[in-house]
Amino acid sequence: MNTPNKLTVLRIFLVFPAVFFVLCTCIPGRWIYALLMFIFASYTDYLDGKIARKHNYITDFGKIMDPLADKILVISMLICFVGLKLSPVLPVVLIVIREFTVTSVRFLLLKTGGKIVPANIWGKLKTVSQIIAINTIILFQMYIEITGNELGMIFSTISDALIWISAAFSLISGMVYILGNRKFLNLN
Length: 188
What we know:
By secondary structure, the chain is mainly alpha-helical.
């Protein structure tokens, strides 16, 4: 269990306080705390990858758990947003389906061929777009909580657009991942 893998495990545990602060309406300033938790969790993703590459600490555990930790974090936040009516349902459903599909393919590849395929550029773009969307929604909620000014349609339109962009990147990256591994999946 090297440092990057410990950071990955920490990211999974940070999901709990992030979700807690998003959902717990009785805590003043909850959106600030949710933002701090989410930013810190997102930073551990950057940091574990940087350390792993720099010191050649790339492990099979990290190749599997790092993207899984990202998925747990992002899906948890998006489901909270849907429940709070801060995000439309359909793009979140598409993102969740993509994440489960790619994770299933990853495990199938591991089981059948021992091949663990790391994330490609599309997967990284997907993750960045999701982080931007989630941070933006939290920032909007912080603004509303602090000022009491909702700016209704402006925030809603921007938030929805960012979630749909994330869904588009999610679907593209999922298709690229599956098509890129079709020979290992016997899809010809």
